[in-house]
Amino acid sequence: MPTAVIVDAIRTPSGRGKPGGALNPVHPVDLLAGTLTALVERSGLDPALLDDVIGGCVSQAGTQSVNIARNAVLAAGFPEHVPATTIDRQCGSSQQAATFAAQGIIAGAYDVVIACGVEAMSRNPIGFAALGLDPYGKAIAARYPGGLIGQGVSAELVAQRWGISREQLDEFAARSHQRAAAAAASGAFANEIVPVEVDGVSITDDQTVRPGTTVEGLATLAPAFRSDEAAERFPELTDWKITPGNSSPLTDGASAALIMSERKAGELGLTPRARFHSFSVIGSDPILMLTGIIAATRKVLERAGLGIDDLDVYEVNEAFASVPLAWLAETGADPDKLNPRGGAIALGHPLGASGGRLLATMLNHLEATGGRYGLQTMCEGNGMANATIIERV
Questions:
Q1: Are 256 and 35 in contact (CB under 8 A)?
Q2: What's the pLDDT score for residue 323?
Q3: Which ranges carry the Thiolase N-terminal domain (predicted)?
Q4: Options 116, 177, 277, 349, the catalytic residue
């Protein structure tokens, strides 16, 4: 059975996902195309060897519609015979892209694949409600009479169920910024970030990291997701705690990973950096929504034959601070190994690109520390989660 290895993993800097953000002037096709180009140039790979390009994107509308991965392949100047497809596993889209790429290699269907992702949140509105559309239909409305809800309310339900205080949420968020700022200052992100040229200026730093963030400052922010409708539906939520400060910000960004069989890497004279060890994906309660990472982690550890303490780093996406804190409480994991270079609260959450960002950050941390195993897991809209374990080689 072929072994799927990671030859390289990169990402763009994180831009604020609103007009005026550093990456807003760049069309998302061009943002992803530039990332694809940087990836093959770093390895010296002839893009004609690619069997497929699998891209993640959540808001596949407007400038991100009509198979953005294929459009980016053409924009990058890759040979026309290189195919591409765009997938949507919500926030885990590019993590799922990497999983599909690795599984295709393990199955013998591929030799060389790029898994990638992109999201220009400054250009595309979040959710179909903003477009005046109903994505659910009558059957889902009948199954969930109150209707499915936004992730912010789910984050409140998670905080309430696990007894997580506002102070704990803000402390976690402040720590994310502190860790990310320290990592950036030390040059820890230098090997994963590829610059983006915007109007003649090279953007190289994450725009979303706020080094001066404090718990005291975060405590002044008002809850962001309380509404009369939500309060009436969930009367148990008497103490609303999720704010813009302990949530991930709207973000623009792209990521990409070069994945191939170990045999092919040898033939091409390329050195693998890690191999894919185990995968899991699960569905979960679409109302609570954000807790699937707990079951996905248990499932992937069982498949891997490993315990939580066997892992050297955990990258758990910080969609909201309540999510990794609930994960910590359920898994008994070491908090010092959790997002040691900061997480999405500081580094941003460009939806379709976030899985690739987590992969790149985790891989570089393993190499810097001499660690062996890394876990990444991501909660996803409407109740899903992916988990992946890689092993440094």
A1: yes
A2: 98
A3: 5-262
A4: 349
